[in-house]
Amino acid sequence: MDREPALPSLSRRQLLALLAGGLGFGASVAAANAFTPVASPSPNKLRWLATADSGSGDRKQQAVADQMAAVQRRQPVDLVILAGDNIYNDGDISKVEATFQRPYSALLQAGVPFHAVLGNHDIRTANGDPQVAYRPFGMAGRWYNLRRGPVEFFMLDTNMNANWGQQLPWLRSSLAASKAPWKVVVGHHPIYSAGFYGNDPVAQGRLGPLFKKYGVQLYINGHEHDYERTKMIDGTTYLTLGIGGASLRPILANGNTAACASVHGFVELEASPTTIKINAWDRQGKSIDQTVLVAKG
Ligand SMILES: [Fe+2]
To answer: Is the bond preceding residue 256 a cis peptide, omega within 30 degrees?
Structure first.
């Protein structure tokens, strides 16, 4: 009844070319620049999926990945965001088959591009450089931006050893130059959270003023192994998605919390120039949360 449709040969070829070329990709890891689009989605619509703390390689990750593929089959998505801790436990790229290629094979075979950032586990091997160079992770550097349809993504390295001396001026000038209706920043570490690690006052001081000044409407992170959506804080909604496969932690709402859950899953997002619809799903395909962000005036 519910069989996988036969894959078109082009998608297979694209996947094989992608995977074969991956490890030899000679990216300059210090470079931060815009990633060249493979295919441009509509200028007025972007559909994407996001999750984090995914790379466990176990059945929980597979269950989440299966639900992500089900959403893609129902209505195609333009890309997938992985917000770090892409490969447990030590970011070892030799485990990429078990922690990425196999779990997400349906999405990869459908030709959906992935774009990742580095989590704390990812930098344990060669400071994450092999992941930056691994082409299917879609990283143009340790930090990079990506304009797709009505959304511009600003993908950050938020690790302890991140080069903020270079990254922060780059973020400031990139946000200032952006003409996108929606500015979405992605980093592994939380800025506002009611979870195990809680709020990060240093990150709030470093990034909060930029988000406010340049109108960043959404920040996506992992690291906290729970699902959280905050109320809007100075115009920004903070979405914690450390639910892609790693062991969960309990979550207790605080004054900033709009929704929270301790379940595995992912979010489906759909942007128009004036709205972003957010649907969060668990690993059984049940709805966790839904809301709509509306652009200001
Ligand atoms: Fe983490």
So the answer is: no
**What would the pLDDT profile of 11-64 be if each residue is shown by its tens digit?**
333 332 333 333 323 233 333 334 444 455 688 999 999 999 999 999 999 999
H or E segment to which residue 230 belongs: strand 227-230
Residues 59-103 have pLDDT tens digits of 999 999 999 999 999 999 999 999 999 999 999 999 999 999 999
Neighbours of ion ligand 1 (CB under 5 A): 85, 119-120, 223
pTM of the prediction? 0.88
Angstrom CA distances, 1 to 47, 110, 173, 215, stand at 27, 20, 52, 47
Which one-letter amino acid corresponds to residue 266?
A: F
CB-based burial label for 255 (10 Å; 0-12, 13-18, 19+): exposed
- Determine contact, residues 202/208, Cβ cutoff 8 Å: no
Q: Give residue 255 CA to ligand 1 midpoint distance, Å.
A: 24
Q: How far is the CA of 285 from the centre of ligand 1 (A)?
A: 24
What's the topology of domain 40-294? Purple Acid Phosphatase; chain A, domain 2 (3.60.21)
**What amino acid occupies position 177?**
A
